[in-house]
Amino acid sequence: MKSSVIIFPGSNCDRDMDVALKKFGFDNQMVWHNDVKIPKSDLIVLPGGFSYGDYLRCGSIAGKSRIIKSVIDFANSGGLVLGICNGFQILTETGLLPGILQQNKYLNFICKNVFVKIKNKDNKYFKKIKKEVLELHIAHNEGNYFCSKDELKLIEDNGQIAVTYCDRIGNDDEKNNPNGAIKNIAGIFNKDKNILGMMPHPERMIDPFLSGEDGSLFFENLIESL
Amino acid sequence: MKVKVIVTLKNGVLDPQGKAIQQTLNGMTFNNVSEVRQGKYFDIEINESDESKAKSQVEEMCKKLLANLVIEDYKIL
Fold it and tell me: How many CB atoms lie within 10 A of CB B25?
């Protein structure tokens, strides 16, 4: 399976993602933001970081970069596009995913492990993961997911909520909401579920000695599902 | 010519920075400040002498990049 990780100026999780994808069997290649074409891929990843210094709004400049047209074409033809953290912000700015990631409610940069509940397994990203709750890492200043009430209803009705912040046993209530995100949303799909954006970093949880292994479950499932 | 744009958060959208500024002002004895909403201001120099053409181009810029219409409104001055 071939994957491509797009590097923007200011991306900083691109190499972690490269390591994670290769560890679980992807033939990964790195693609520069100024390129026009993406090599043949089964999966495109927009990594975390601070693309273009988070100028204007997080992800807004990357959302207009040269490579993005190819990402949008790939996504619109049904290809799998995964955006982690800043990648999620970029996906909302391109319009591939609804809503926006606003500044965290309490104006703090949050860097810690959290639990997220998988809300929909009828898709390639979570299909064969046996657990219901994953422990993953978040590190962001703008992770406060927001969308209009009408949009939220559409997202809920279409099963587009992918993961929500919760506690160890899966209570995704306000008490377990780190950043003010509407409905504790940590990640969402597009309508067809081929595009996933999420704030937590599975690529940081693939080594039992460094962190944890719930990220491994994510990548193992991904390569099996493709 | 120069075109000026102000981008603000829509009514009802949480503005934690504005809130923090308001609370700070209150703490500085400006007790009568009941709300602050923070926004962005753009000064755009555009090589176009026709004002209405320039403004309609800036309107496009607002819709496509300068503002995110999910949470923001823009005003061309």
Answer: 14
Of chain B residues 39-68, which have a CB less than 8 A from chain A? 64-66, 68
Element containing residue A89 per DSSP (H, E) = helix A86-94
The H or E element containing residue A55 is none
ipTM at complex level: 0.83
How wide is the angle at C-alpha A111 spanned by C-alphas A105 and A155, nearest 5°? Answer: 55
Task: Judge whether residue B12 has pLDDT over 90.
Answer: no
Overall average pLDDT of the B30-43 stretch: 96
CATH number at residue B25: 3.30.1280.10
pLDDT tens by residue, A63-74: 999 999 999 999
- C-alpha dist (Å) from residue A38 to A21, A24, A215, B57: 17, 21, 26, 31
Smallest Cβ distance to B70: which of A103, A147, A180?
Answer: A147
A79-107: pLDDT as tens digits: 999 999 999 999 999 999 999 999 999 98
Closest CA to A48 of A8, A11, A7: A11
Query: Which of residues 116 through 135 in chain A touch B, CB cutoff 8 A?
Result: none
Closest by CA to A192, choosing from A102, A93, A83, A79, is: A79
Q: What is the pLDDT of residue A88?
A: 98
Q: What's the structural domain count of chain B? A: 1
d(CA B25, CA A88): 35
Q: Which domain holds residue A22?
A: 2-225
List the one residue out of A146, A47, A57, A139 whose CA is nearest residue A97.
A146
